[in-house]
TrEMBL record:
PROSITE patterns: CYTCII (PS51009). GO terms for cellular component: periplasmic space. Binds 1 heme group per subunit. The lineage of its organism: Bacteria, Pseudomonadati, Pseudomonadota, Magnetococcia, Magnetococcales. This is Cytochrome c, class II. The keyword Zinc does not apply. Pfam families: Cytochrom_C_2. One of its GO terms (biological process) is electron transport chain. Keywords: Electron transport, Heme, Iron, Metal-binding, Signal, Transport. Residues 1-24 form the signal peptide. Heme c binds at residues 142, 145-146.
Length: 152
């Protein structure tokens, strides 16, 4: 009988522990997802820059896919910030100001998305001048938001 009781307590405790762990893991997953989506944007931006300089050339089809991938990631980025999660063990540089100024943060994301779509159009045109101008416009949105909404 005593053994059963102990087993019951052990099961209860391990149940509580795993519930606690699941919660911590979810908070970490939210941060990791945000960083993952930003990482896709960053990787594609780097590739586009390299292509413009002429240091990389994967051909027009792949270059277009890179621009589309960037635009796609830009379109889902805001959703990854919807929840202001706290207590994550994964390091984050996201400033709490994001959730105080949500409307302005959202606007920043929308502008990035629009400019990423301009880049897609510029890549489709095949004109390097338009691509350069679109990259410049898009790049300004990264810096503008990072300066305001990222902490060191
Ligand atoms: C409206 C806001 C906003 C815009 C626009 C934005 N970012 Fe970010 N970005 C963030 C925030 C906030 C973080 C910090 C995320 C974290 O640490 O949890 C971040 C982080 C990153 C990271 C680091 C990811 C990591 O693994 O830690 C990269 C790379 C990045 N952004 C690239 C870009 C590029 C390139 C652009 C422009 C094409 C861009 N971002 C536009 C808000 C923005």
């Amino acid at each position: 009988m005593k053994q059963f009781k102990l087993l019951g307590v052990a099961m209860l405790v391990s149940g509580m522990l795993s519930a606690g762990m699941a919660q911590a893991a979810d908070v970490d997953a939210v941060i990791q997802q945000r960083k993952g989506v930003m990482g896709i944007i960053g990787a594609n931006m780097g590739f586009m820059g390299c292509t413009l300089k002429g240091a990389c050339d994967a051909g027009p089809k792949v270059t277009l896919k890179q621009a589309q991938s960037l635009a796609f990631a830009a379109s889902i980025s805001l959703a990854t910030f919807a929840e202001n999660v706290k207590g994550a063990s994964v390091k984050t540089t996201a400033s709490p100001k994001i959730w105080d100024d949500w409307a302005s943060y959202k606007k920043g994301m929308q502008i990035m998305e629009e400019r990423a779509l301009d880049l897609v159009d510029a890549v489709k045109s095949g004109d390097k001048g338009s691509m350069g101008a679109a990259m410049k416009g898009l790049g300004e949105t990264c810096k503008g938001c990072h300066d305001n909404y990222r902490e060191k």
